[in-house]
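Amino acids appear as letters; backbone shape is given numerically. Here is one record.
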Amino acid sequence: MDALCKDTRQGLDETLGNVNKAVRQYITVVQNDISEAHRQHERYWASQRRRNIWISIYLAVVPTIVLFDTLIHLFK
């Protein structure tokens, strides 16, 4: 009976060890996926910020040029 309990205990320990290893591997994969998604998210928003800066510059410069051009033609 003791041998059976010992074998059962050893089998359970081995199974739990395998499950523990698999869970740790899964957690590592998920953490890596989250990290990659975060990096992609940061890259996307960095490109959006650059785009918004150029749009802001365009929206500030073009109307100013048009205004001065109009004023120059009005006072010629």
Q: What stands out?
A: The chain has a mean pLDDT of 92.
